[in-house]
Design a protein that fits this description.
By secondary structure, this protein is an all-alpha fold. 86% of the residues lie in helices and 0% in strands. The chain has 4 helices and no strands. The radius of gyration is 15 Å and the shape is elongated.
């Protein structure tokens, strides 16, 4: 595994842990059930797809799973912004987790672009 892949494995798992804790907070403290469930699903799916990609059968399989992780990360960003904009999350709470999501997106974009380029060359 290269350094970029190692980095995204670690970051996505740490992010999933934060998402689970945020989900519990939203459910128990704010009484929010619908958006928090969507956030939990997409936010934990990022790491699950990355974990599966690392054990992919081929480069195209690896890239497909990483691309799914990227789509889930983009969806997670949407739910975090929506929770902030509807004031279920304070600006401070959102600013503590949104940059991590954006960083994961940037890493996944780089991985998928590099892998696609390697597959096509």
């Amino acid at each position: 595994m290269n350094d970029g892949v190692n980095l995204i494995v670690v970051k996505s798992k740490a992010f999933a842990v934060r998402i689970v804790k945020l989900y519990r907070h939203l459910r128990h403290t704010k009484g929010e059930f619908v958006m928090s469930k969507q956030l939990l699903r997409s936010g934990t799916s990022i790491g699950a797809n990355i974990h599966e990609a690392v054990r992919g059968q081929s480069k195209p399989d690896f890239n497909a799973k990483m691309y799914i992780a990227l789509k889930e990360a983009s969806e997670t960003e949407y739910w975090l912004e929506l929770l902030r904009d509807t004031e279920y999350l304070t600006k401070t709470e959102a600013e503590s987790i949104l940059p991590d999501c954006i960083e994961i997106i940037k890493i996944l974009v780089k991985i998928t672009k590099t892998t696609t380029s390697n597959i096509n060359s």
